[in-house]
Specification:
Blueprint (H helix, E strand, L loop, with lengths): L10 E3 L16 E4 L6 E5 L5 E3 L4 E3 L18 E4 L5 E5 L4 E3 L12 E4 L4 E4 L8 E3 L1 E2 L6 E3 L4 E4 L12 E4 L5 E6 L2 E4 L2
Amino acid sequence: MASTPVTLLSKRSGNSSDRPLDTTVQVGELAINFAAAENGLYFKDSAGDIRKVTGVHYGSSAPNSTPAGETGNSVGEVWVDSGTNNFLRVWDGSSFIKIGAAFADVAASATVTIASGAIVANSAVVASGAFGATTASGALGAAVASGLEITVISGAFPAVPASGVFGYKVDPPSGLYVSFGGGWVPAA
């Protein structure tokens, strides 16, 4: 018997911000947007919500801010806001929240506690966007950097770099982490 090749195509679009409508996708069905400007892989979950499962949006406006299809965003969707400070933001179901919003853009002084008192730094954030510690526990002295780099971590934690490197883990146990004392500790 001769076999005939079969091509299976998911629901798809090449239009930027064209997310699938929950009325056109079945539970568990995949849909893809392959537009260069804003793309992603989507599925409908058991609660009937459309979930984005790939891609981190980078730009000065939020993903899906001018929708061509379904409006809104998926819980846990990540956006690197390329505005003045390059904030990492995550959709919580109602808005994009800044990771580290309690101290990441404070112009005055702040007290930052990491790993239940392991590090406490006063005046940790300087108005220029540079990070510096004028005083710190353990007499760490002053440190100034021109910005903040956050490594996105998926799967197992990578080898531990020098203390003070930030990482955002996208899968459980998800959250913001900092390398300290030979390991990764939650930064909250």
